[in-house]
Amino acid sequence: MRALIWLIGIFALAVGVTMLAGVNDGYVLVVLSPWRAQVSLNLFIVVLVVGVALIHLLLRMVTRTVQLPGRVARWRERRRRDKADRALHGSVTALFEGRFSEALKSASTAYSSSDGSSMAALVAARAAYGLQDDTRYREWLDHAAEQGKESEVARLMTEAELAIDARQFELAAARLGQLRETGHKHIAMLRLESKVAFELGRWEELVNNVRQLRKHKALSAEQAAPALRRAHAERMRQLVGDPSALLAYWQEIPSEELADRGLIKDVLPLMARAGQAMHVRAQTETLLDEQWDSDLARLYASCANTMDDTNACLHKAEAWLEKQPRDAGLLFALGQLCRRVELWGKAQSYLEASLSVDPQVGTHLALAHLFETLERRDEAQRHYRAAAEKMAVGALA
Question: Which pathway does this polypeptide act in (predicted)?
Answer without folding.
Answer: Porphyrin-containing compound metabolism; protoheme biosynthesis
